[in-house]
Write a structure and sequence with these properties.
Blueprint lengths: L2 E5 L10 H10 L4 E4 L8 H6 L6 E12 L2 E8 L6 H12 L1 H14 L6 H8 L6 H10 L6 H4 L20 H10 L3 E4 L13 H9 L4 E5 L5 H14 L2 E4 L19 H10 L6 E2 L8
Parallel strand pairs: 1-2, 2-3, 5-6, 6-7
Antiparallel strand pairs: 3-4, 3-8, 4-5
Helix pairs in contact: 5-6
Length: about 290
């Protein structure tokens, strides 16, 4: 089985619609794909309706969190999307996205970049506006060559010249909320230093003690020594280890299935979840 547990659609900051994403996942030879848009589950219904034969969908979201001044992303899988407390927490984060993006646009303009809010809004469309949409505008304007080039201290990286903070969840609260909604939590790309400051291992240990289920190890932003370090940390803390593409469509160069999760780990995730269950396409594989 080929299993990719971290992808994004146009419901947040990817370029594929949810329907296109699941079709592309099947075409890429995946057996299981997780749709984990930022702080939203809006794309799940469309993805389920378009789910091809032979592909199983894991519903989820990537939650924006902050600990000791450092941002982190928490992948939440198979939770009850209607659980009211977690739904309210996601809404608070989403509501702050537009004011935050407008602030970053204003800061870019103050730096001499001829960017307009209307351009960013057009790129975001119906998705939850975020930094990748602003980065795409910078590419269109010729300010940077690629979206990744915008995520530097010069521009949009954490603490960068045009960066603006947003409302983010306390990760201990997020773990509690996801658990209460029957879900499973995995720390996304925990040592992706190219994105900015990362959470220290001592904090990861505290999150593990609070109920964190796993850490994302195999990821495009982790080199081989980093992956080995994270595997050792996971063994020490008793955490599951996942691998995922963090696919964003054409917004990033990474392909679906570029990194994958071991079927045994996927099976353990599905066993721990009680809020929702993987959705198989007709004739698709069942949970391990």
């Amino acid at each position: 089985m080929r299993i990719d547990l971290h992808t994004h659609s146009a419901a947040s900051d990817g370029t594929d619609t949810p329907a296109e994403l699941v079709r592309n996942a099947a075409a890429a030879g995946l057996d299981v794909v997780a749709l984990t848009d930022h702080d939203t589950v809006r794309g799940h219904a469309e993805a389920i309706a378009a789910l091809p034969d032979g592909l199983t969908l894991v519903t989820g979201a990537e939650l924006s969190c902050r600990i000791d001044g450092v941002s982190l992303h928490l992948l939440a899988y198979l939770f009850d999307p209607d659980e009211p407390e977690l739904a309210r927490a996601r809404e608070l984060v989403r509501d702050d996205r537009v004011p935050r993006a407008r602030t970053m646009v204003s800061r870019l303009r103050a730096l001499g970049v001829p960017i307009e809010w209307e351009r960013v809004a057009r790129i975001a469309g119906d998705g939850s506006v975020g930094r990748p949409h602003i980065a795409t505008a910078l590419v269109e304007l010729g300010v940077v060559e690629t979206v990744s080039d915008a995520f530097t201290p010069e521009w949009l990286a954490n603490g960068g010249r045009a960066y603006a903070e947003k409302h983010e969840l306390d990760p201990f609260d997020a773990i509690r909320l996801v658990k209460a909604a029957g879900g499973v939590t995995v720390f996304a790309h925990p040592l992706a230093v190219k994105r900015g400051e990362v959470v220290p291992e001592s904090s990861i240990a505290k999150l593990a003690a609070a109920g964190l289920d796993g850490i994302e190890v195999d990821h495009m932003d982790h080199d081989e020594p980093t992956r080995a370090r994270l595997r050792g940390l996971a063994r020490e803390l008793g955490l599951l280890t996942t691998g995922s593409s963090d696919y964003h469509g054409t917004r990033k160069t990474v392909a679906l299935g570029e990194c994958t999760t071991d079927p045994e780990i996927y099976g353990e995730i599905t066993r721990r979840a009680t809020g929702a269950f993987p959705v198989p396409g007709a004739g698709g594989p069942r949970p391990v």
